[in-house]
Amino acid sequence: MKQKITDIQPHNKFPSHRQLFLDKKPFVVIPANLVENLGLRVGLKIEAETIEKLIAADEAMRAKNYALNILREDIYSKSQMTQQLEREGFRERTIKTIIAELIQSGHIRDRLYAEKWVQRRLKSNPRGRAVLKQELIDKGVDPQTAEQVLAEVKAEDEKKLALHIAQKQSKKYKNLSTQVAKRRLHGFLARRGFESETILQVIEKVL
Predict the structure, then answer these.
(1) How far is 107 from 86, CA to CA, in rounded Å?
(2) pTM for this structure?
(3) What is the pLDDT of residue 168?
């Protein structure tokens, strides 16, 4: 069923876009160049195929604006942004298109996301590289990128973190025998992703 374009108006918020009205009702907001490319004009009756193109263009604009807005507040990985757009109800093909555009424009960079996330994690709630790698993978960062980013964490810095954590935790074991305290501290540090060699060196210093 054809529908008639009854008005085309400049958009107040997006000067490069136009608001289309079908049968005197607001329908979509699309780029001005798409209006020209499709030969849209007031009085033209458009078919379902053209209407679908307009809906897709309108959705793409809304999805991209949403993504750019939340990127102003925080950094997102490709996987996280995909999930955000899915929760907002955007269609799969629209999401794929917008994600590709955001990667191309540099708004989404998984390596940068991983670097920032590791920096925050080491400051607020330190963990060893093994745990950090798994957490990055859980957040949608591919294993190779996670490995590359964590390779930049110096072994000496990791030892300092492990030592700091061990010194704090060991106070809870002061009433235990040395053997039991060492075993518990080893398990505690291992669960936080520190390597065995680092754990053994740290335990020797604090117990």
Answers:
(1) 18
(2) 0.73
(3) 85
